[in-house]
Amino acid sequence: MKGMLSVFRRELAAYFATPLAYVFIFIFLVLSGATTFFLGNFFERGQADLAPFFGFHPWLYLLLVPAIAMRLWADERKTGTIELLLTLPVSIGQAVVGKFLAAWAFAGIALALTFPMWITVNYLGSPDNGVILTSYIGSFVMAGSYLAIGAAFSALSKNQVIAFVLAAVFCLLFTVSGTPLVLNAFSTWAPAVIVNIVSSLSMLANFDGISRGVLDAVNLVYFASVIVLFLFANAVFVSLYKAR
Amino acid sequence: MASVVPAMIEIEGLKKRFGAIQAVDDVSFTVGRGEVLGFLGPNGAGKSTTMKILAGFLPADAGRARIMGYDVANDPIAAKRRLGYMPEGAPSYSDMTPESFLGFVAEVRGFRGGDRRKRIIEAAGRTQLEEVMRQPIETLSRGFKRRVGLAAALLHDPDVLVLDEPTDGLDPNQKHEMRMLIRAMAPTKAIVISTHILEEVDAVCSRAIIIARGRIVADGTPAGLEARSARHNGVTVVAGPDSRAKLLPLLTALSGVGSVVEEDQGLFVQPVAGRPIIEEVRALIRQRGIEVRDVRPERGQLEDVFRSVTIGQGSQVGDAR
């Protein structure tokens, strides 16, 4: 537990030790604002809610979250510090969870800094703040799921670019499986059960419910399962690397 | 040699294979308090692999490694608490400062508050890092980086220290300092260092193990290993061509002489079974009145032993204990 906290603190501080944190936060804020106002027709809709804002989060995360996750293990492998870290009295599980939580906390900070959006809608009208809160929670757990995928792929390579590309492709699969494009391709031949399974594996589908203000246990269980599954894979990848 | 009991590092029948290469092949040894074991071998001989297994980073295929009685595979956290390990190249987080890096290591090792502060100051003091404590590690010189790695390894004052090539890439002054530091810590700890610099073994080690192709090919005190050299107790007679011609048959006939070889400087007289022979050679030269420039004894060179046991020649030195 102590070991995990130490890893968490070091890792979170490491984000802010380089310009990465500030660049990331800046780009995230600019893109989330731009998509909301230009692609989401925030004003034209004439509704005081943040649906256009949250609607683009899965797509933003697809690009940006692998960028925060890619360094977690790839960098340790490249510089050899993984040997230092894993010969300290820390278990692989503690290191995996500590690093993940640090990246997640960082993503949480970036997400929290979008609060001017919330102020804006409250200034313009009277939105349902309960929906906004659940959307924030949903967006945060979804970011965690993308992060867990990214962290696992980071442990597969010592090259951050490879880790990024692999993670982005995998995150894409988990995202698009809920789009009409993919679902239509399946529905023409596959039974409805299969279509439902594919759809239910999608970040989009699971986030959709939450962002409409319904904190359904099924969706939360989905995100939690993705996180647990990929953290487990992450630990396995690290052990395999160690045993290579 | 008299081994100090009880053993703090125990390695038994360690084996590790990478694909087709048997990197470590049945390596066993123990190290006790007060011992500094020099781990010697050519590149790729299995030194680092053995140390990585000992540090609990790599799992072994067979055999066991114990630190202070704790098995590194079955009880890794307990073993790691008692071990200070500096991996090859002394990796550290380059965007941290030595202060924050040592702070992290201290925290992981469970030190809090004032105790943590004290440990960091102590480790920095022993490795003379004070002046660079607040500079990013990536901006430091190689010598300082190495010392940061060492400070991290000895921060918790471990009973067992395992240092993979601690002086690699350091300048002569820094090497000297590193050796002094290792020697200063030696009495209370069991230390293993790997190196391919042979003078280092003479300088700091109480015992040396030579490893080649994953196997231990020699194990003994540095002096004991030197005595295994073919040149040990040999005599070099520096003389001109005329004297050489006269001396060659006389020396060859001298009792106790194994062989006489002509070298650049003169004649090298190799004794039978490494027995000292210089007095007999001197007497012979005096008696015959042959003019020579110098007669000097040779000391066995660790380098010769190293070469002969690692290349697989010289059966006389290749005993595997």
Q: What proportion of the residues of chain A is helical, as a percent range?
A: over 70%
- Helix and strand string of chain B, N-terminal first? EEEHEEHEHHHEHEHEEHEHEEHEH
Q: Which band does the percent of strand residues of chain B land in?
A: 25-35%
Most extensive contact: A-B, 24 and 31 residues
Blueprint (SSEs and pairs):
The complex is a heterodimer of chains A (244) and B (321).
Chain A: H1 2-17, H2 20-39, H3 51-55, H4 57-69, H5 71-79, H6 81-85, H7 92-112, H8 115-124, H9 129-154, H10 160-176, H11 180-187, H12 192-200, H13 203-211, H14 217-243
Chain B: E1 7-18, E2 21-32, E3 36-40, H1 47-54, E4 62-67, E5 70-71, H2 76-81, E6 83-86, H3 98-108, H4 113-126, H5 142-154, E7 160-164, H6 172-185, E8 190-195, H7 198-204, E9 207-212, E10 215-220, H8 222-226, E11 235-238, H9 241-253, E12 257-262, E13 266-271, H10 278-288, E14 294-297, H11 302-311
Parallel strand pairs in B: 3-8, 3-9, 6-7, 7-8
Antiparallel strand pairs in B: 1-2, 1-4, 4-5, 9-10, 11-13, 11-14, 12-13
3D structure, described in words:
The complex is a heterodimer of chains A (244) and B (321). Chain A has 244 residues and is mostly helical. Chain A has one domain. Chain A is 80% helix and 0% strand. Chain A has helices at residues 2-17, 20-39, 51-55, 57-69, 71-79, 81-85, 92-112, 115-124, 129-154, 160-176, 180-187, 192-200, 203-211, 217-243. In chain A, helix 2 crosses helix 7 and helix 7 packs antiparallel against helix 9. The mean pLDDT of chain A is 90. With 321 residues, chain B is an alpha/beta fold. Chain B has 2 domains: 7-226, P-loop containing nucleotide triphosphate hydrolases (Rossmann fold, 3-Layer(aba) Sandwich); 235-297, Alpha-Beta Plaits (2-Layer Sandwich), CATH 3.30.70. In chain B, 35% of the residues lie in helices and 26% in strands. Chain B is built from 11 helices and 14 strands. Chain B has helices spanning 47-54, 76-81, 98-108, 113-126, 142-154, 172-185, 198-204, 222-226, 241-253, 278-288, 302-311; strands spanning 7-18, 21-32, 36-40, 62-67, 70-71, 83-86, 160-164, 190-195, 207-212, 215-220, 235-238, 257-262, 266-271, 294-297. The longest helix of chain B is centred in the middle third of the chain and has 14 residues, at 113-126. The chains are: A mainly alpha (244), B alpha/beta (321). The interface between A and B is medium-sized, with 24 and 31 residues.
